[in-house]
Design a protein that fits this description.
The chain is mainly alpha-helical. The protein is about 75% helix and about 0% strand. The chain is built from 8 helices and no strands. The longest helix has about 50 residues.
């Protein structure tokens, strides 16, 4: 309260968490060099490269243009972002389950294959050229299924609406 939006952003550098500290330091440097606030925030949004960062930067840009009502806007945005983060955590926890299962299946499979490798009678058919071809195709299929499972658990980033990436679309 009682300071400009730019000064408030500059003062947040002290309490910035490590994951976004470099981006905030660049934002503060731009603001200190008298770069227009809107331009500095658009560059900041590009550096964050996240739709949530776009929402925050859009709110700050509106605040910089209007110079009134920014506190209410940011409070509402904070609630919205908190809900979004909670939702992302739940989704990420659900995505971790198949990855853990795939990890354990792979470990058990590798242990079994290693044990079977040392029992000569079971792997004897794979000693022929046809057996080698079958073994390679089975291992390729196993690797393919693992890659497929990994792709299924990777989140697609939400499309951004600010910055150069959004303008290029």
């Amino acid at each position: 309260a009682g300071v400009s939006l730019e000064q408030a952003m500059i003062s947040t550098l002290k309490s910035t968490k490590a994951p976004i500290r470099p981006e905030v330091q660049k934002l503060v440097a731009r603001l200190n060099s008298r770069m227009p606030t809107e331009q500095a925030l658009l560059l900041f949004a590009d550096e964050l490269n996240d739709v949530t960062g776009d929402k925050i930067c859009a709110a700050l840009i509106l605040g910089a243009q209007r110079r009134t009502g920014i506190a209410t806007l940011l409070e509402d945005l904070a609630k919205s972002v908190a809900e979004e983060v909670r939702g992302r955590r739940v989704i990420e926890a659900d995505r971790a389950k198949p990855r853990t299962t795939a990890r354990w299946v792979t470990i058990v499979t590798l242990v079994m294959l290693t044990a079977l490798f040392f029992s000569g009678s079971y792997v004897a058919p794979y000693g022929t050229p046809l057996g080698q071809a079958v073994l390679v195709s089975l291992l390729a299929a196993f690797a393919g299924v693992l890659l497929w499972m990994k792709r299924m658990t990777v989140a697609k980033p939400m499309p951004r609406f600010l910055g150069a990436t959004a303008r290029s679309r």
